[in-house]
Specification:
Elements: H1 7-15, H2 20-30, H3 32-48, E1 52-55, H4 62-73, H5 75-85, E2 88-92, E3 96-100, H6 108-114, H7 116-121
Antiparallel strand pairs: 1-3, 2-3
Pfam families: KH_NucS_shadow (PF20704)
């Protein structure tokens, strides 16, 4: 799943740096399922008041799973989204997305989410091939 980059944006990238707003707009338009998941977890984070929210619903198809993997496996995309929303994103099991306030990155909750133990405890046979 690649980004759908307009000729104008591609030309601009070829001439120099693209700003985060243009890049994030390209991500939003290219990966709508991933965008929806991330904006949903961000909205949950904002309403929770506890510095953390997560999304655990598996994608409805492999196409949507591919969008989520593309968004969160790419350092550039993930970093752009983190800067745009002022959060730290964490990812498990091809679909579990966590959003943390920057102040929570040193917390026990964040360390538990991103730990090997957390990953192992979040496994199940039905997720083995995701």
């Amino acid at each position: 799943m690649s980004l759908d980059v307009s000729p104008t944006l591609l030309d601009k990238a070829g001439r120099g740096e693209v700003d985060d707003a243009e890049f994030v707009a390209c991500v939003r338009d290219s990966l709508p399922y991933a965008w929806d998941v991330i904006t949903t977890v961000i909205a949950d984070l904002e309403s929770s008041g506890n510095g953390f929210a997560d999304h655990e619903i598996p994608p409805p198809s492999e196409a949507e799973r591919g969008q989520l993997l593309r968004a969160l496996a790419s350092d550039a995309i993930r970093g752009g989204l983190e800067r745009h929303f002022d959060v730290r994103l964490a990812f498990q099991n091809c679909h579990r997305v966590g959003a943390f306030r920057p102040s929570e990155v040193d917390s026990d909750r964040y360390r538990a989410f991103v730990s090997a133990r957390g990953q192992l405890l979040n496994q199940s046979p039905e997720l083995r091939d995701c």
